[in-house]
What we know:
The chain is 63% helix and 4% strand.
Amino acid sequence: MNRKVIQTLAETISKQVEHFNKTEAECLIREFNLLLGEPTNTGRTVQGLDRARFRSILHHTFDLTDDIIMDGAFRAFDKDNDGILSLKEWIEGLSVLLRGTLTEKIKYCFYVYDLNGDSFITREEMFHLLKNSLVIQPTEEDPDEGVKDLVEITLKKMDHDHDGKLSFEDFEKAVREENLLLEAFGTCLPDSTSIEAFEQYVFQEQLEQ
């Protein structure tokens, strides 16, 4: 992609996507092109990031390691559900991950935790998510029991309409009352250190080149 194309694209994207100005959008486009790497054997350039490459970025750049969460993050980024992240999907997703408002982050985390996409976080989904993210002590006789107890405690705190599952409204209300519940079922947002390092690398260093 030559400089002129990148600048035009950056201008368009910065008008459509929240939280990034034109210069930052330009840096993110360059980073996206670097991540795509070399053209394939057929000589064609791949048009987007696949799941494996995206997971590698989440893992190495943002220190997110939970497989279930990483798959959920990919679904959240992949708006058109075609299995590939386009440039716009990549930048839109990063705008929430790096600089999202609380409202945007609530929507994002709920989407990640709603494993089957039915607009609810069910007991089963909570169980899978919590079992995956908790460190189970080998001495525990039945570690699943501990996870089940935690699911019930969480439901008691967050299930405002008492239907045994969390709707988006339940989740949003609980998080607004207690922000720490945003990542109640596992870490799906990068910490401030990872965000700072990524922005420093992408925005500062690229501008200096």
